């Protein structure tokens, strides 16, 4: 087992736990299997080049160009003069694309020391967005202050990028401070994007009183919410079950001339009712949106498939899959993940494996969720030796091992009553600096509780509190 991504002990292979017999209607799963089998012979859509798209000759061959004297000498001089700058700026762009914020800041610092380099607004914008997404709002603020010191005029877009960094890290008070500052600057007045960013932060934090006040302020400033703004609020109301307010926002969109509902609105509503298992409402709203002239996309069908799968409505799941093929909508990784997850939840390893094999035969790339579903499915079926092979295969495919992945493996160990292996996986998770979440501790506490290991529960809860305190302290002491 030395080559495994996670070093499982032999005890996991030999562990067995009693499993309740899973009852699945043979007709339902056969429907899905038939659809999967039929997909092998589905014709592939040919690529038709449009005018101007064909990657051929873009200009007449015989067209004469104006001769340029000493071209080679000029190019050589330009290359020697700007070679270093081009190389470093390309490196900076590459680091930003790879989301390596610390290295990007170091390279940017090197560039700013050069007399020939004048950073532009676009570069600051990219760095501010990167730092916000990377959980570094205070560093974003520092970079913004340095930009002002260098004499670059701020814009509403730059302030909104800074504000978004605070919002992404749930620093609502700081984000509102930026909003107040923007309102005091004539050239940096907040716009609909600024308010949409703040609304999303308030919705995610369930601060619905602030949502109402922001809407009122937008109205006073004659800023009309757009479809994105309304979709953000719709999603928030739906997530917490505020269906009356959700319907009010949706009704306003239907009569509005500036923010009509779109396919994203449709997907949000389908997800809300689908995740709650309210299939009748999901189907009713699907038909309503179709009557409004909104056509579904691949994600819409994936939501339907996932919702039907969770309710074990395999016949309807198969119907959607067939409909997608009929309309030439591609089956994506998410499509296959939803089907695999449906079988995994009930421990139907046979159909789960068949779907996974079909996914690979079509050249579809598996992701972390795929393997989380496979691990959960094998654990539910009591096939713990296949949990190990799934982890090995994930390592072979270089699948990212995130929190959800480790939680799936820890849960499988707990179901196998192999607490020693569970602790080893947990240690591995911490060694890889993968963040433990509430689900991680919940699984382990439950496993220890079944064995009456109260001392283990005590130390685990102490460790959880320590991690929470450390995270809070790091945020407070982050250099600004």
UniProtKB/TrEMBL annotation:
Keywords (A to Z) from UniProt: Repeat
Membrane-spanning segments: none
One record GO biological process: embryo sac development
Annotated Pfam families: PPR, PPR_2
InterPro entries xrefs: PPR5-like (IPR044179), PPR_rpt (IPR002885), TPR-like_helical_dom_sf (IPR011990)
PPR repeats (start-end): 120-154, 155-185, 191-225, 226-261, 262-296, 332-366, 402-436
Molecular function per GO: mRNA binding; rRNA binding
Gene3D superfamilies, alphabetized: Tetratricopeptide repeat domain
A single Gene Ontology CC term: chloroplast
Family: Belongs to the PPR family. P subfamily.
Xref: PANTHER family: BNAA05G30910D PROTEIN, EXPRESSED PROTEIN
NCBIfam families reported for this sequence: PPR
Protein name: Pentacotripeptide-repeat region of PRORP domain-containing protein
Species in which this protein is naturally found: Arabis alpina
């Amino acid at each position: 087992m030395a080559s495994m991504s996670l070093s499982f002990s032999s005890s996991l292979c030999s562990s067995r736990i009693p499993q309740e017999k899973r009852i699945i209607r043979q007709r339902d799963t056969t429907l899905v299997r038939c659809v999967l089998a039929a997909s092998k012979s589905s014709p592939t859509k040919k690529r038709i080049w449009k005018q101007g798209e064909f990657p051929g000759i873009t200009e007449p061959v015989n067209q004469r160009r104006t001769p340029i004297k000493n071209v080679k000498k000029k190019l050589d001089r330009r290359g020697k003069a700007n070679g270093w700058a081009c190389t470093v700026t390309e490196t900076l762009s590459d680091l930003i694309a790879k989301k390596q914020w610390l290295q990007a800041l170091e390279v940017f610092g090197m560039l700013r020391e050069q007399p020939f380099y004048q950073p532009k607004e676009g570069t600051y914008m990219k760095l501010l967005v990167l730092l916000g997404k990377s959980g570094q709002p205070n560093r974003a603020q520092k970079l913004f202050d340095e930009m002002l010191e260098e004499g670059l005029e701020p814009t509403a877009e730059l302030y909104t990028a800074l504000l978004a960094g605070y919002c992404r890290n749930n620093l609502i008070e700081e984000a509102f401070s930026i909003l107040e500052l923007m309102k005091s600057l004539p050239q940096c007045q907040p716009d609909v994007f600024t308010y949409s960013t703040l609304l999303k932060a308030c919705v995610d934090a369930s601060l619905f009183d602030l949502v109402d006040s922001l809407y009122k302020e937008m109205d006073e400033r004659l800023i009309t919410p757009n479809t994105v703004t309304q979709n953000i609020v719709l999603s928030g109301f739906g997530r917490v079950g505020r269906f009356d307010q959700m319907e009010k926002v949706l009704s306003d969109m239907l009569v509005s001339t500036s923010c009509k509902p779109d396919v994203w609105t449709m997907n949000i509503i389908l997800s809300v009712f689908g995740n709650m298992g309210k299939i009748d409402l999901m189907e009713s709203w699907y038909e309503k949106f179709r009557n409004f002239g909104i056509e579904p996309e691949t994600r819409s069908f994936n939501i339907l498939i996932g919702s039907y799968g969770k309710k074990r409505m395999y016949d309807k799941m198969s119907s959607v899959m067939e409909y997608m093929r009929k309309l030439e909508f591609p089956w994506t990784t998410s499509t296959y993940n939803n089907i695999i997850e449906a079988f995994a939840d009930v421990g139907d390893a046979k159909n789960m494996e068949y779907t996974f094999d079909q996914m690979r035969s079509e050249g579809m790339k598996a992701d972390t969720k795929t393997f989380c579903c496979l691990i959960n499915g094998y654990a539910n079926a009591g096939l713990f030796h296949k949990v190990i092979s799934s982890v090995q295969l994930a390592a072979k495919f270089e699948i990212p091992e995130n929190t959800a992945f480790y939680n799936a493996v820890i849960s499988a160990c707990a179901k196998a009553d192999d607490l020693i292996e569970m602790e080893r996986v947990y240690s591995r998770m911490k060694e890889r600096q993968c963040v433990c979440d509430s689900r991680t501790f919940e699984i382990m506490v439950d496993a220890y509780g079944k064995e009456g290991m109260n001392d283990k529960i005590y130390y685990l809860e102490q460790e959880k509190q320590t991690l929470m305190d450390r995270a809070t302290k790091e945020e407070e002491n982050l250099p600004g």
